[in-house]
Input
Amino acid sequence: MLKTMLKATVFASTLALASGAFHSAAFAEVVYNRGSAAEPETVDPHKTSTVYEAHVLRDLFEGLVMQDAKADLIPGAAESWTISDDGKTYTFKLRKDAVWSDGSPVTADDFVYAFHRLEDPATGAEYASMLYPVVKAEDVNKGKAKPEEMGIKAVDPLTLEVKLNAPTPYFLEMLTHQAAYPVNKASIEKLGAEWVKPGKLVSNGAYTLAEWVPNDHIKMVKNPKFHDAANVKIDVVNFIPTEDRSSAMKRFEAGEMDSYDDLPTEQLPDLKAKFGDQIRVAPYLGTYYYAIKTDKKPWDNVELRNAVSEAIDRDFLAEKVWNNSMFPGYSMVPPGIKGYTPAMATFAEKSQIDREDEAKKVLEKLGYGPSNPLKMEIRYNTSENHKNTAVAIQEQLKPLGIEVTLLNTDTKTHYGFLEQKGNYDVARAAWIADYQDPETFLGITRKDSGNNYSSYNSPKFEEAMNKAAAAGGNPEERMKLLSEAERVLIDEVGQIPLLYYSFHNIVSPKLHGFEDNVMDVHPSRFISKDQ
Output
């Protein structure tokens, strides 16, 4: 009897355990461990500047217009829009079912507040210039007008009107950028600087911010109030910052990461052999460049800047340092933008030997050589790839009498220093397209841009950019004028373009919906994962 009862108890317990296991499996959270090559500085959309922040903010917030898995435009917080015949007035109709994560409705006033905040000089937004096409936005940002004078107004709670200075072909795509996302006024006014903290951040995207352990992970959980929550397959996204690319490969191989957004390129042949088609490498719209401090002696001499630029062997960098995962770059705007011809450096077609000879003559004329070396410091952010690039350039310039020293800091410190217009010689930087238009690459070097790390200030360049902006209604003329502006920038060496990007991703076969595209945009809401 006792034996029979024991058997029955064990059988019942086994059934209960099996049932529980099935129940847990059926409702197990789907977790996406998403590796990132650097940690964001902030999740305040108006105070960000890097792609690492963009990836996180794209999951937390939703702008008027967004990008899908292939980087094509789709409706966001706005379900539709119309454009006036003259191309200068955009009217957006917001979704009735769009709400903040605290349950309050997303309204046109939220976007008015956000646009005003972006342009408020007190915000110190690096991307404030992005909205300069909006009427009076630039004046507001420079303290010459009041926010309410800007060309943006809430017609009613679900209707937003935006007026532009001139037709701006890239305006809709520009609105997918994090700087154009809405922010929650009530939360900011109540919490002040604390509004961005985990558990406090009120957002309107597919995910909410649950945890942020510095240098370890950022945890985001699915937002049940998101209007398209039913189609969001990933329950938890953990952004895992890992600047050491080699360590990231080990963590990926161990299953600790499902994807990672960079590769140690010196290992690329071995990685391709080991991981096969999990390695994703293809061109996308980005330029790897060195910012050079144009307002600091001796770098304020355009001849000197050009000599340094000319002496750098870009073919070697692309082929040997980056294992052909990047391409030699001679313009700030990379190839691939429809209707645009980039303005290349005049020495682009010359042999490397001729370039070095010309650079040497200029340096000698300016009094530099092995007996009186030109001292130059290159700053770069942590990455084997950036270090190897800087070391290669150091060796290339040495025979010409240029004595290069290297200074490395983590990504957050590096860009924080550049944003504060710190005192330096040359610094590694990069620009990834915010939208598929030349202006995104040229606008960063305008005198008032927060991303103008080189402090380049050229009236000739500014005039050409203004003419291009005024020609917005004539696409062909506008592209021609933008190319003329780039010609000024390249000839005056406002920046030193070195390479054109390709994306370097490693992606687990368990992930679906991680679509390769020229913008390297991968919103987590469109990704699913096998359990």
Summary: The CA atoms of residues 303 and 362 lie 7 Å apart. Residues 1-26 have pLDDT under 50 and may be disordered.
